[in-house]
Amino acid sequence: MITLNIHEAKTQLSAVLSRIEHEGEMAVICRNGEPIADLTPHRRVSRTTLHKVMSRVKLHYDPTEALTEDEWPTEER
């Protein structure tokens, strides 16, 4: 893990991002020795893989089905 102060991060940003991209390292940017931000490699998520929690949701109706006249709010009729 790379630890940088703000000045180092500003002056070496391109090199730090290259290390993160190619080596998968993480970086922590600190102010006065206190961590303020993490830089991590971007992980592309598959859009076709179901989320663990959302895969447990069950719908017992068709969400694309049109509403009947009495289901619309009165002010929208």
Question: How do the strands and helices of this protein lay out in sequence?
Answer:
Elements: E1 2-5, H1 6-11, H2 13-23, E2 27-31, E3 34-39
Question: What does it look like?
Answer:
With 77 residues, the protein is an alpha+beta fold. It has a single domain, classed as YefM-like fold. It is built from two helices and three strands. It has helices at residues 6-11, 13-23, and strands at residues 2-5, 27-31, 34-39. The protein has a three-stranded mixed sheet. The model has no long low-confidence stretch (mean pLDDT 90).
Features of the shown structure:
YefM-like fold, alpha+beta, 3-stranded mixed beta sheet, elongated, 77 residues, 3 strands, 2 helices, 22% helix
